[in-house]
Amino acid sequence: THMRRLRALARHRHSLAHADRIVLRDLVFRGRHGVLAAERELGQRFEVDIVMQTDHEAAAASDHIDDTVSYVGVYDQVRSVVEGPPRALIETVAVEVAREVLSGNARVDEVTVVLRKPQVPINGILAYASVEVSRDREWLESLRRA
Hints:
Elements: H1 2-17, E1 20-31, H2 37-42, E2 44-54, H3 57-62, H4 71-82, H5 90-104, E3 110-117, E4 129-136, H6 137-145
Antiparallel strand pairs: 1-2, 2-3, 3-4
C-alpha cells in the first residue's frame, strides 16, 4: 500500500512533466449494446473519443513509427469491443475499451474513453447519452493480480 502510493506519486509527477497525449476523436461504430431487446437486435451507432497519455520523447527523437502508439492498432482495438458482444450498459463497454487499449499498448500510461450513444430510448429530446472513464496502468495490473 505504501509502495503503491509512492509509485502513484512518481507516475503523477511524471505525468505532470510529460503531459503528452494522443487523441482519436469521433470514432464511429455500429454496436448492439443496451438494456432493451430491440437495441440488441437492431444495433445502433456509437461514437467514441480516446485520449491516451503517453510520452512522446522517444518518438520525437527517432521520428520512427515503432516509438509511438499505432493509431490503426488502437482504432482496431476499440472497434473489436464496440462491435463485439452485446452489453447492457455503455459503462461496461467503455471500461472494456479502456482495458483493451491499455493491454495492447505498453506505451500508453493512462487512457480516457468517452462513449456516446446518440439513439437513447428516452421519451424526450437529447443529443446523446455518454459515459467517460479513465483508467491507468496500475488499474490494469490490479486486474491481472486479481
